[in-house]
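Lecture 7 notes: from sequence to structure.

We start with a single chain of 284 residues. Read the sequence below before looking at the structure.
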Amino acid sequence: MDKEHRQENGTGKRNRENGEDREVGEDRKTGKTEKTGKTAKTQKTEKTEKKERKSEETSGGKRTKLWSKQPVARANIGAERRRSLMDAVIAAIHDRGSLDITMRQIADRAGVSTALAHHYFGAKDRLVLATMHHLLSELNLDLQEATRQAETPRARLSAILATNFGETQFRPATASAWLAFYVLAQESAEGKRLLRIYTRRLESNLIHALYPLLEDTTRPARPAAVRQAAKRIAQEVGALIDGFYLRRALGSISLSRTETIAQSERLLDRAIAAERHALHSPQT
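Now the structure, written as tokens:
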């Protein structure tokens, strides 16, 4: 009797424990907690939404990230300050007539502190080289756009001349800066490298446009001779551009930008005609 009673009590205890285990197992499976009565999935969703509310704002039905505007604003301010410092370099060189300028003078013109100028560029030489690089980059972008619109080789040549005598590049202050850059290239390896890139790029563009103008299908000349003639004209045009800039910087030229381009066009046409005659005349 006692034995049977003990067995029944043991069986009942096990049944109750198994029942509780099943209930706990079911609770774990559904992810419910006694305190909140919410599932783990619901809690996770609420945490995610809370994070999103902190990093986003609703404006006009669109969510805009608050933090995304700040780096862009800082980048714009930095670019504007760098540009103002480079503009100040050009103005200071023009007024001084040489590279004998200080970082303080440049910073004062740009309306920033000397410390900030050093923060962006370090030493004065690096700022001057950055200005030189900036002018060359602008010239290259303008040249690409102008030549893209040219429909013939002769129009391409006109685009090259017009771009090199552009309103920004050929103004007196920038011409003075270019003259100073040529002086800098005598002692700066980086300055010399930048000018060499400019010279080679100009020569390559001119040769590319000149070659078809120097060919004659009725009396073909040797390709090497045509290319050599195109190179000669390209070098002459490069020297012509440098000469006009030198006179512009020294203030010894009375020609306007439009008159300078027109005169360069006339000299270019004469050079093309002379080389064509030399290439395709019966004597050759």
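Residues 66-96 form the longest helix (31 residues). Keep this in mind for problem set 3.
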